Amino acid sequence: MSPRASSDRCRAARLRSFAVSYWPVVVPVVAAVALALVWGRSLSGWQVGLAGCALAGAVLAAVHHAEVIAHRVGEPFGSLVLALAVTVIEVALIVTLMADGGDKSATLARDTVFAALMITCNGIVGLCLLVGALRRRVAVFNAEGTGAAFGAVATLAGLSLVLPTFTTTAPGPRFSPAQLVFAALAALILYGLFVATQTVRHRDYFLPVTAEGEVIDTDDHAEPPSARAALSSLGLLFVALVAVVGLAKSVSPAIESAVAAAGLPASVVGVVIALLVLLPESIAAVRAARGDRVQTSLNLGLGSAMASIGLTIPAVAVASLWLNGPLVLGLGATHMVLLALTVAVGTLTVIPGRATPLQGGVHLSLLAAYIVLAVSP
């Protein structure tokens, strides 16, 4: 081999090493810059394409940094960090859109929360159970922790999204001010109890388990990152998630135009945006399931659902004090049927503490039904 060819090969190797080492730092910054350039502007076709590429890069960077943090703090804290970070930013986006939307945003919080519920409880959970079961024939998880999380999600969904349809104090599927205060307080208290149960009193219920039911409390594959690296990842995770949500909002007009041009209902836009916002958690959950840590993936899915209700309802309750227009939280008949099926199927899935590909397929079929009915009500 000539000296020049050897030099070129060494240079290429150094470039690859640099890209592998620094892309998690560079990509969130580039995505944030792209967000600053496109925010509040009408985008052309090629600009939408560039924003979409930045969005995809931000999603991958968010997953990487979430895994670094999870490796440092351990489970279930790592899952909680990602779920909480995504939900806080998502709530801020919802309140901002409600402030700008007037009466037409009356159902925005309800539609967003329900979309998040269906995506997490059926999409993420179903896909992770399917991946875990195909890998080990049976996906094994801790029934105590998963059942507690799913029960809390079902309770908050019923209190916040079903009851308003049947109350009579306020007209329509709405809460009266006193009822809304109760729903907000119940959501906050139950979410606080869930976090305390998951991280303090019964942390072992939310740790991955082996096929024999033994709890896995350590990661033997690699040394955990340093505190400095974890803090850096925490900051970059926040930047990446801001970019994900902001870029999703920036490309939403193009999505709305495409949906309208296709003759689809406006609710499809909410489904697409929810899918984009939850993409980091979905990828992280599937990777955990592929690594034979199904419990970690369920923590991500159900934790995101819990955070979505537990933080969104109190936030919109406070925002309704100064926002004009009604706040509609009650679901329609079709969505209540889907929610009831999700609760029933989820309960039967959780009780044994193990699942076959069939259970994963059933959950995914419910998500498919939700998407089909969103496209064709």
UniProtKB/TrEMBL annotation:
<dbReference type="Pfam" id="PF01699">
    <property type="entry name" value="Na_Ca_ex"/>
</dbReference>
<feature type="transmembrane region" description="Helical">
    <location>
        <begin position="46"/>
        <end position="65"/>
    </location>
</feature>
<protein>
    <submittedName>
        <fullName>Calcium:proton antiporter</fullName>
    </submittedName>
</protein>
<feature type="transmembrane region" description="Helical">
    <location>
        <begin position="358"/>
        <end position="376"/>
    </location>
</feature>
<feature type="transmembrane region" description="Helical">
    <location>
        <begin position="113"/>
        <end position="134"/>
    </location>
</feature>
<feature type="transmembrane region" description="Helical">
    <location>
        <begin position="20"/>
        <end position="40"/>
    </location>
</feature>
<feature type="transmembrane region" description="Helical">
    <location>
        <begin position="229"/>
        <end position="248"/>
    </location>
</feature>
<feature type="domain" description="Sodium/calcium exchanger membrane region">
    <location>
        <begin position="233"/>
        <end position="374"/>
    </location>
</feature>
<feature type="transmembrane region" description="Helical">
    <location>
        <begin position="146"/>
        <end position="166"/>
    </location>
</feature>
<feature type="transmembrane region" description="Helical">
    <location>
        <begin position="260"/>
        <end position="279"/>
    </location>
</feature>
<dbReference type="InterPro" id="IPR052946">
    <property type="entry name" value="Alkaline_pH_Ca-Antiporter"/>
</dbReference>
<keyword id="KW-1133">Transmembrane helix</keyword>
<keyword id="KW-0812">Transmembrane</keyword>
<keyword id="KW-0472">Membrane</keyword>
<feature type="domain" description="Sodium/calcium exchanger membrane region">
    <location>
        <begin position="47"/>
        <end position="199"/>
    </location>
</feature>
<dbReference type="InterPro" id="IPR004837">
    <property type="entry name" value="NaCa_Exmemb"/>
</dbReference>
<feature type="transmembrane region" description="Helical">
    <location>
        <begin position="178"/>
        <end position="196"/>
    </location>
</feature>
<feature type="transmembrane region" description="Helical">
    <location>
        <begin position="77"/>
        <end position="98"/>
    </location>
</feature>
<feature type="transmembrane region" description="Helical">
    <location>
        <begin position="300"/>
        <end position="323"/>
    </location>
</feature>
<feature type="transmembrane region" description="Helical">
    <location>
        <begin position="329"/>
        <end position="351"/>
    </location>
</feature>
